[in-house]
Design brief:
Two copies of one chain form a homodimer.
Chain A: E1 6-7, H1 17-23, H2 33-50, E2 57-60, H3 64-75, E3 81-86, H4 89-100, E4 104-109, H5 118-127, E5 133-137, E6 139-140, E7 145-146, E8 161-165, E9 184-186, E10 200-204, H6 206-213, H7 226-234, H8 246-262, H9 264-281, E11 288-289, E12 300-304, H10 311-322, E13 324-325, E14 327-328, E15 337-341, H11 349-363
Parallel strand pairs in A: 1-13, 3-4, 3-5, 5-8, 8-9
Antiparallel strand pairs in A: 2-10, 6-7, 9-10, 11-12, 12-15, 14-15
Chain lengths: 364, 364
């Protein structure tokens, strides 16, 4: 028994059929020339969706959280300072992971549901120019807020790197790594990229690569040391590091192929359209949208439940009666709100229509 | 284009058909009750193959190397001492990973190709009883040597934990976590368990769990902190940690189901039989077996190439003319030897016969 869910939570979403098909391809060895060519082509596709020409662009063998940790562990040394924008759960997680790898953290907060002030982040950097990086979440999965990244390009004129979390944004809304001056960026495959979870795409600018090369202490994680992953995937000869999964990489490769065949602008456009429709419809059912107007993500909507509706019972009914998953709330929305995703293959009218049609029955 | 290899290297091996089929099942959310039930059933199956009743038994979302790091990072604090048996590449990796998480390492070496002396490990512990753990590789994938673990049960009478790497042994030869007094054990899915790579099964004894609970410093890796993974998979309510892949867990679950349906003794027996046949045949083709007689793994054989045969060209011909992958040599066998695996679904007469039939054509 294995249910067939419509996955409308904060991710995973239902993968593209091409991504599912690719999972059953024959397994390739982790040093097979065909596998390394597949990784190279996947990296090429990732550069397009990231909006970058970065040489070091690769799939980390883990989920988005592994991508976050790979970047922080590789770029920070014990005792160094990181400035972190915090307006939701994943900003807090950036702080926690940075502290665990031995860094000092200067949080720059904003209330949950509101956007970060880019100037406050730039001011923090000006006050502590020894900060080694500024880390920001582009699309806060806990609140549905889109943070503005372009003004942070000013960090390019300093010695402070810009690290960007695009776990929920990549493939759903425009991400422009090179234009925005992003030095390190990670994402995940199970949201707007339309593949299963298990891979974290990562890209680093040349100055981020130099930062790792010039480290004094080794990266505390062997598994997530991006310089070792670079030597594995792009070394000549490739240097064995771990047994990467051709199964997952094939799937991501196929999902990206589908996405790029449709074209990024068209994909962004349908995410925007269904998200707008969902956000127009929810208040009619008594929901209260959580994120600040003007900064709402189309692909992930956080909303307070209508008065009198119990979170657990309603999600259970939606799951058991209709086979639809939505996400529970986090932080101020825990127990009182939902997170609804229309991502990747689910950013189409049918999933939206299905969800809205099921709502009345479970809100009674 | 995607080739269909016979994978006879050190892993990945070709998964069981059931494990491939399970990959295309509908994706489940990472907090879906059905997914958590699947994880629980997978953990139950893992307990059987590990030979343990340990409550904390779970799939880490990464490859075997992530399992190694999860154990070392979770069990060691900065400045603590680890004793590591080193008679091959993966013993060396244990040292490197332990040092990166801040531990001091006391290696107890033996020459590559020979077995570790359990008494030397016990003596090292007696001389430095403050050592927090003794780490040993059960099946050294670089040399084909089986290390003897049962005598290390004596560590149960000390405050030093026993950490065992069963990446290449689990499912191929007997592993008896409880009988041998193993406190922490990790493995990988792409070898004798007959699934794709990407998951690291881990099990911890109660005293290893207590060790993590009583830590002073947080684990340097958030992603690989076994106490957080425990709270996710077995917490009540489950505590979100990362977006685990139902795709990979379904596959491992199915591979384990196939293995246990056949039964561990029968699976061990066919690994033993085909390995013995391979090791009897290789010298007839001019190979020289590398591992010490009496301590050879049936599932992974390291051997020097016949005089005059070039490693790279011969492996290329085997791959391109016959679609068969074998592994290159490591350490003293680099450039001069091969590692040949007959693991999981490939521990059957047909892969062995195919390999031996192809050999003459590529050794000329």
């Amino acid at each position: 028994m294995h249910s067939d869910r419509l996955l409308l939570g904060p991710g995973p979403s239902n993968p593209y059929p091409e991504a599912i098909e690719a999972l059953s391809r024959p397994v390739l060895g982790h040093l097979d020339p065909e596998f390394l060519a597949l990784v190279a082509e996947t990296a090429h596709r990732l550069r397009t969706v990231f909006g970058t020409r970065n040489r070091l662009t690769l799939p980390v063998s883990g989920t988005g959280s592994a991508g976050m940790e790979a970047c922080l562990a590789s770029l920070l040394e014990p005792g160094e300072l990181a400035i972190v924008g915090v307006n939701g759960y994943f900003g807090e997680r950036l702080c926690e992971v940075a502290r665990r790898v031995g860094a000092h953290v200067q949080p720059v907060p904003a209330p949950w549901g509101q956007t970060l002030d880019p100037q406050a982040l730039l001011d923090a950097q000006r006050q502590t120019p020894q900060a080694r990086l500024v880390a920001v979440v582009h699309a806060e999965t806990s609140t549905g807020v889109r943070n503005e990244i372009a003004p942070l390009r000013a960090l390019q004129d300093t010695d402070t790197l810009l690290l960007l979390d695009t776990v929920t944004s990549l493939g759903g809304i425009p991400v422009e790594v090179d234009t925005w001056g992003v030095d390190a960026c990670y994402s995940a495959t199970q949201k707007c990229l339309g593949a299963p979870s298990g891979i974290a795409p990562v890209t680093l600018s040349d100055r981020a690569v130099a930062r790792i090369r010039d480290r004094h202490a080794p990266v505390c994680s062997f598994y997530q040391d991006l310089s070792l992953l670079d030597a594995y995937y792009q070394g000549d000869p490739p240097r064995y590091h771990h047994t990467a999964s051709s199964t997952l990489i094939s799937s991501v490769h196929a999902g990206l192929g589908r996405l790029l065949q449709e074209g990024l602008p068209a994909v962004w456009e349908r995410h925007a359209r269904v998200g707008e429709q969902l956000q127009a419809a929810l208040p009619e059912h008594g929901f209260v949208l959580f994120a600040e107007p003007g900064h709402r993500l189309p692909q992930l909507t956080a909303a307070r439940l209508p008065e009198g509706v119990g979170d657990t019972a309603a999600r259970k009914a939606l799951r058991e009666d209709f086979g639809i998953e939505v996400g529970s709330g986090l932080g101020p929305l825990a127990g009182t709100g939902w997170r609804i995703g229309l991502m990747g293959h689910n950013a189409h009218p049918r999933p939206l229509t299905t969800f809205l049609a099921a709502l009345p029955a479970i809100l009674t």
